[in-house]
Design a protein that fits this description.
single chain; about 100 residues; Alpha-Beta Plaits; 4-stranded antiparallel sheet; 3 helices; about 35% strand; globular; Dimeric_a/b-barrel; AI-2_Isomerase_LsrG; monooxygenase activity; ABM_dom; Quinol monooxygenase
Length: about 100
C-alpha cells in the first residue's frame, strides 16, 4: 500500500471503565503524535454510547504504524486497556475522493 495508512479503532468498554481509560489516553496521545510517521492520532467518545471509544489514526505508511506498535508507551496502553474492553474492532479506511 502506498500513501497514508489510515484506520479506525472502535473499543467497546466494560461499563464503568471509561474514565480509567480516558485518564490514560492523553499521555499516549501526546507521545504518539510526536512519533516519526504519525500524521494524526485522535480519540473520541461516542455520543450515542459512552462505553464506546473511537480512535482515528493516520500514519505515513504501514511501517510507521508497525514501529508505533513496538513503542513502550503503546505497549503499556494496550496492556492497560486489555481487561477493560469487551470488544475491539480495527478497520482500515481510504479516501474515495
Amino acid at each position: 500500500m502506498t500513501g497514508p495508512y489510515k484506520f479506525i479503532v472502535t473499543i467497546e468498554l466494560v461499563p464503568g471503565t471509561r474514565d480509567e481509560i480516558l485518564a490514560r489516553a492523553p499521555e499516549v496521545q501526546v507521545a504518539t503524535r510526536v512519533e516519526d510517521g504519525c500524521l494524526s492520532f485522535d480519540c473520541f467518545t461516542c455520543t450515542d454510547d459512552p462505553n464506546r471509544l473511537v480512535f482515528i489514526e493516520a500514519w505515513k505508511d504501514e511501517d510507521a504504524y508497525a514501529h508505533h506498535l513496538l513503542r513502550d508507551h503503546t505497549q503499556r496502553f494496550l496492556e492497560f486497556c486489555e481487561p477493560l474492553h469487551r470488544s475491539f474492532t480495527f478497520e482500515t479506511i481510504a479516501a474515495t475522493t
